[in-house]
Design a protein that fits this description.
It is built from 13 helices and eleven strands. It is of the alpha/beta class. The protein folds into two domains: 153 residues, Rossmann fold, CATH 3.40.50; 156 residues, 3-Layer(aba) Sandwich (Rossmann fold). It has a six-stranded parallel beta sheet, with helices on both faces. It has a five-stranded parallel beta sheet with strand order 9-8-7-10-11, with helices on both faces. α6 packs parallel to α7. This is ELM1/GtrOC1 family putative glycosyltransferase.
């Protein structure tokens, strides 16, 4: 447990999903920066991941944890993101006699009551509980060394482009968002409109999920405009993405990736989120449609500012008891970001400039709140008191 000469010991669980792993590392780095807190990265072995998928709640043998370099002394805090690492974190808490603090990001693998601290963003539709902190944005990493190296490598290559620079971050299909060619055509029209209004140049970055038809639509539509650069996938080396975040003056980001939106927002620059077509996930006449209809109703009413009624509370009960698993709805996240004035239209008039900087400051405040909550949980464990 806690080192006698240092701060709390943290284990940062790393699973199979790169985006989930990045959130865990970002939170761990934020908690340890400038403090005596100590963090160790623990990568889950394939066998341990499979055990979490197939054997919960039966805990595997200790040698499977040792294969992932997890053995006593146990840490004070385990941070996990996603269903499988969530289950492993619960096993570690059991092995530690309940004395460690489990902090969970993203999807849950167990009932929220079993977790000490749940950190959620709006798109997952998790029902609010007393042990939850609702984050405005996913926690993202800002590696200053990597960023400086990328800027040094790319700045001279981009300097011939006229300012201002509009960074366009293009994602791809992410259930339930298909990101089809029609979305690509609408995105091209918005890019063209912003370029006409704002002037300057375009810095366009694709992700690994960007569909080929969307790339073709954008590149063909912009072929007559020499004031742009396109960074494809896989990216050239060194990766230009950190340089783009550092150098662009404003951003247009497709709505499929919460982490990509957060990357842009914490730069402190103006951000507009481009909404893709989000189909209705299931109808009320499908085999699971009634539950999803309750879920869609609850989330729509929340976005409209309506107080929960009986059906809303029933839906929240189903979610908390893991009898209903909400789908990811990016409209919920965008609602929160608009309400907090973190994102907005880049086509605002000159006397109403787009907001900037709020995402960066807000994330810093929220991380500090998370740290204080974790400190309280650790003290409660040490004192043997409930929280």
């Amino acid at each position: 447990m806690q080192d006698s000469v240092g701060g709390p010991r943290l284990w940062l669980l790393q699973g199979k999903t790169a985006g989930d792993n990045a959130q865990v590392l970002a939170l761990g780095e934020s908690l340890t920066a400038g403090t005596g807190w100590q963090a160790e990265i623990k990568s889950l072995s394939p066998d341990l991941r499979q055990a979490a998928k197939r054997r919960w709640p039966k805990r595997p043998a200790l040698d499977q944890f040792a294969a992932s370099e997890m053995s006593p002394p146990w840490p004070d805090v385990v941070i996990a993101c996603g269903r499988t690492p969530c289950i492993v974190a619960q096993w570690l808490k059991e092995l530690a006699g309940g004395r460690l603090v489990h902090v969970q990001l993203g999807r849950l693998g167990v009932k929220p009551q079993a977790i000490d601290l749940v950190l959620e963003t709006a798109q997952y539709g998790v029902a609010p509980t007393a042990n939850m902190i609702s984050l405005t944005l996913p926690i993202v990493r800002r590696d200053s060394v990597r960023e400086a190296a990328a800027v040094a490598a790319w700045e001279n290559d981009l300097n011939d482009l006229p300012r201002p620079w509009l960074g366009v971050l293009v994602g791809g299909p992410a259930s339930p968002i298909p990101f089809e060619a029609a979305d690509g055509s609408r995105l091209l029209r918005r890019i063209t409109e912003l370029k006409r209004r704002l002037g300057g140049s375009l810095l366009i970055a694709y992700g690994p999920r960007t569909p080929n038809p969307v790339r073709e639509i954008l590149e063909l539509g912009l072929s007559g405009d020499r004031a742009h650069r396109v960074f494809g996938w896989p990216p050239p080396q060194p990766n230009p993405y950190p340089a783009l975040l550092a150098l662009a003056d404003r951003f247009l980001v497709t709505c499929d990736s919460a982490s990509m939106i957060a990357d842009a927002c914490v730069t402190g620059k103006p951000v507009e989120v481009f909404m893709l077509t989000i189909p209705e996930y299931l109808t009320r006449f499908s085999s699971r449609g009634l539950g999803f209809s309750l879920d869609a109703r609850r989330r729509r009413r929340h976005r409209e500012g309506l107080a929960p009624d009986f059906l809303d509370r029933f839906r929240d009960f189903l979610v908390t008891e893991r009898l209903l698993f909400p789908y990811r709805d990016m409209r919920d996240l965008l609602h929160v970001l608009n309400k907090a004035a973190i994102v907005g239209s880049l086509g605002a008039s000159a006397d109403e400039p787009p907001v900037a900087g709020r995402g960066k400051a807000l994330q810093a405040r929220e991380i500090d709140g998370v740290k204080q909550r974790i400190i309280g949980l650790i003290r409660a464990r040490q004192n043997g008191t409930a929280v």
